[in-house]
Amino acid sequence: MAESELKKICTEMRKKWPTLKHIVVHHRLGLVPVMEASVIIGISSPHRTESLEAVKYCIDALKSTVPIWKKEIYETQEFTWKENKECFWTDNEVTVEHKREGN
């Protein structure tokens, strides 16, 4: 499900910025140490403005629409499951338009 949502985001970026050449989005799996990146987004285009706008769109869309859950493990070995505060299925505001399938 997460992969199909990421593909939708990439398709939408290509519609919004047709000059984009290459897009890569990678979300790490497993243990991610504190202060390390969990998401890598790389976008190339003839002009940097399009790439920078597309990267911002991509991370905002990923955070608000892709069902990625985080298990935070604390020093005490206690843990909690977290969801992104931007996700559309919570009561928080969403900054990126998202249509649910069937709507």
UniProtKB/TrEMBL annotation:
Annotated Gene3D superfamilies: Molybdopterin biosynthesis MoaE subunit
One GO term (biological process): Mo-molybdopterin cofactor biosynthetic process
Superkingdom of this protein's organism: Eukaryota
Ranges annotated as spanning the membrane: none
Entry protein name: MOC2B synthase
Organism (species): Polypterus senegalus (Senegal bichir)
Gene name of the record: Mocs2
